[in-house]
Specification:
The chain has 337 residues and is mainly α. 69% of the residues lie in helices and 0% in strands. Helix 1 runs parallel beside helix 14 and helix 9 runs antiparallel to helix 13. The longest helix has 26 residues.
Length: 337
């Protein structure tokens, strides 16, 4: 009993220490006000230069210009390194980083089939270094977590047999969410568990809606069944039933779900729905700013940096496309701070 009490006390101390470290780091994050000011700058080059004021620096590329991708990737890498230094459970960064591994192995399968290099398509933010993906299929599978390892092997086989790249995406996306759910569960972080479950539900909603609006009937039903993600708070049968009943029935399901606030979007475009779904997740994550310590604080900081990277991508792309500041802001997600 004494040893157990000592272990609990040590864990609480570690959480308090890590939480205090993260709170100090949060204070340095550019908030919504900073992002709004950046949208007023005249070009993406001006935005990149301004980011140096907030500690985001990247070495110039061969052309002498700031390496945009290196800068963006460094934001996520730095956040993961910071929470590790603070003593966070390694499974918390894994929840964030596994989608990058998923993207990378999908690119490897497709590029190898076309006999081209996947190097330009690989992110360095995953758990597996891009260079390690140069090995054989067996060597790559051995590096992946269980669900993605099995899906990788199956995707290679099915793609070789069918030539359909959709099977790669469907198999690996489902496996990635399964491994994310495992990592979240093992971390015992309530926010991470909630986030993965809600992310699965909202992804299933958007898949179902997209297929309904394509008017592909039975073919769409088959694709939906193959694509639906397990592990959400709403079972896959809910989405299948809603698909059979039509779009109005789908929104009625949303109205009765934890995501009822999104039901007002029934006449909105997929882009608007995707943005509002992302904002729904961030609204919940923002509440961790009022939690004194614990794993939720750490996971909230990791997600804050992921959303920051996404917003910076939107901002830079908008500037390159010549969009107005108002149009850029309309496309951006909620900021954590």
């Amino acid at each position: 009993m004494a040893n157990e009490k000592r272990r609990i006390a040590e864990n609480e101390y570690e959480f308090m220490y890590a939480g205090a470290r993260v709170r100090a780091l949060e204070a340095r994050l550019p908030g919504q006000d900073v992002l709004d000011r950046l949208t007023e700058l005249p070009s993406s080059a001006a935005v990149l230069s301004a980011l140096a004021e907030y500690g985001f620096n990247a070495a110039p590329g061969a052309d002498g210009k700031i390496d945009r991708e290196a800068l963006l990737l460094s934001v996520s890498d730095k956040a993961c390194a910071e929470v590790r230094e603070a003593g966070a459970d390694e499974r918390l960064p894994a929840v964030i980083r596994l989608p990058y591994d998923c993207n990378n192995v999908k690119a490897v399968i497709k590029c190898r089939a076309r006999k081209v290099s996947p190097a330009s398509m690989l992110f360095s933010n995953g758990l597996i270094a891009p260079d390690a993906l140069n090995g054989t299929n067996e060597e790559i599978a051995a590096l992946l977590p269980p669900h993605m390892a099995a899906a990788f092997t199956e995707a290679v086989t099915q793609y070789a047999a069918t030539g359909n790249p959709q099977v790669i995406d469907m198999l690996l996306d489902k496996a990635c969410f399964a491994d994310m759910a495992d990592a979240a569960s093992k971390s015992a972080c309530p926010l991470a568990v909630w986030y993965v479950g809600a992310k699965i539900d909202l992804t299933n909603l958007q898949m179902c809606l997209r297929l309904l609006r394509m008017h592909v009937a039975e073919a769409g039903k088959a694709q939906l069944q193959a694509s639906l993600l397990a592990g959400g708070t709403m079972g896959t049968d809910v989405w299948e039933t809603a698909y059979d009943a039509g779009e109005e029935a789908l929104w009625d399901v949303v109205q009765r779900s934890p995501y009822a606030s999104l039901a007002v979007l029934r006449d909105s475009s997929p882009a608007v729905i995707e943005r509002k779904a992302d904002n729904y997740l961030m609204e919940r994550v923002q509440k961790t700013r009022y939690v004194p310590f614990g794993q939720d604080v750490i996971f909230g900081y990791l997600l804050a940096n992921e959303y920051l990277v996404r917003n910076l991508r939107i901002l830079l792309s908008g500037k390159d496309a010549g969009l107005s500041p108002a149009d850029v802001r309309e496309r951006m997600r909620l900021s954590y701070v």
